[in-house]
Amino acid sequence: YVQKKPYDWIRGYHVGGRSLMWGRQCYRWSDLDFEANAKDGHGVDWPIRYKDIAPWYSYVEQFAGISGSKEGLPQLPDGEFLPPMEMNALETHVSESIKQKFTDGRRMIIGRVANLTRGWNGRGPCQYRNLCDRGCPFGGYFSSNSATLPVAANTGNLTLRPHSIVMEVMYDKEKKRATGVRIIDENTHESIEYFAKVIFLNASAIASTAILLNSVSDAFPNGMGNSSDQLGRNLMDHHYHVGAGGRYDGLKDKVIQGRRPNGIYVARFRNLDEKTKRSDYLRGFGYQGGASRGMNWNIDGIGSELKEQMTEPADWSFWLGSWGEQLPHPANRITLSKTEKDKWGLPQLEFDCEWRENEIAMRKDMMDSAAEMLESAGIKDIYTFNDEKAYPGLCIHEMGTARMGNDPQTSVLNKWNQLHEVKNVFNTDGACMTSSACQNPSITYMALTARAADHAVSELKKANL
Amino acid sequence: MVALATGGVVIGGELFLTGCRTKESKAAGMAFSNNDIAFLDEVAETIIPRTTTAGAKEAEVGKFMTVMVNDCYEEPDQKIFHEGMDQLDEACNKMHGHSFMKAEPAHRTELLKALDKEAKEYTKNKKKDDPAHYFTMMKQLTLLGYFSSKPGLEQNFNYQQVPGKYDGAVPYKKGDKLFI
Fold first, then answer.
1. ipTM of the assembly?
2. Does A86 contact B168 at a Cβ distance shorter than 8 Å?
């Protein structure tokens, strides 16, 4: 792909996709997020509110199995949780310290994660190996491979066709409907057409939009459903690689057993209301991280003394990294190259996206607040980091480029995730997102998907599709 | 982690992370012989000797080093490593009057302690883009190899392949084996 500005486009083109390698953190959004664009004027208003998606969060949480603790935080709504994982000794200390020392209501909680703390729907439980990204033989976390594909296969209606690269969605101008997709076989380069009543285009944010941009016809010379010229615009990610860490002198009489594939989470505490309003940036950020105590690598010398010292526990350490919201900006966009093609003859993508003023201003607070919280809890030798080379895309939370909205003039998808202009084409991956919030987005895609699928079935039954 | 122990970055670290690449072409004098592996085993054993638990030789760290150097080191670093084996032997000759393989354990330890100091001093004073000291490479690879090996993990720690649970506040007193 072509980088007009640096962009890290990280893909997982295999059966199961990035559901095998994802970070598994699952946080509901709230109306703080769904109302953000309407309130500060960046981007367009979301066509839905929390009440529209809340039952679908519950639906997917109950299917996937999300472990977590109920906290009653309005900006981070509770869900249908399996029992939470445990904080370790230092995390408990830091969490309690933050609760006592900060009067703005900020909370450090255990991460909400799609790892199963007990057996669930025939899968798991998690064995605390922390080898999730190799794919779990215990089905200990939610992935397409462990959870949804087996259920789909059991219906008898699933045909899985790997090595298929969708080139375009085909369109019938008379009926104003999409008729199917044209694919190219990755290996043989053979072109094949598949036909369907309804198409869910879920190739991940960038690829779904690329397919629509490449679906050119008389009716849609600039890409399917793109009369608004919004397709490809408002590309977002979360900005991260910023935070702080340090070591702790106490708790020498405690160590850790097991490798927990999860950490702690600090819910957003900036710009929630008038009291927490910042003058230097809009919106906010959360933190992930955790404490650990392992073997002692920081040793000089050689010989039996070195060996003995290395096998003793090091000091406890704490690491706190921040994930921040990116404002939607129409000039942050992807387009199809007019000259460069990939090996299958498809146009390469051009990325033109950068962190702007608001993100850069926010990062300073993300870093300083991390150090401040750690310091207040007695963490020593605090270091801070703010990696300027963490370009958009690196967080692998790419969102936007086919945003939902009420107005077909300014958005691509409607409130049911249908293309405004082609009602039998749905998109429910990151492309549909109208803003980025600061929470990990996957559970929101999953809830939107279930909601849109339910709508599609109901419309099919009414013969509206 | 290893970087902390030996100063500076992990040599070849970029390739550790992305999965090592095997280089097809080997420059002259850049292949490891069985004698080289035996030599590296003894160097590693001096860094991590057998005590009540296995030493680096039992963990086949010599062989591990050759794989890492072949697959994960860039050519200039490979050259430093190969030349470093000769330099180490020469240093032993100078200090003890015979080769490293013929030196008794106490002499080996004395030599490597001196080299460890020398490498640490070199690392402290070197410019960012200067190459690493050969002994830094050998020590890094020894620690990495030993503490990711079966005997290294199983004999020194309470290693649980499938822990099955998490407890973040297990009582600990000096001498207890650390969970890893």
1. 0.90
2. yes
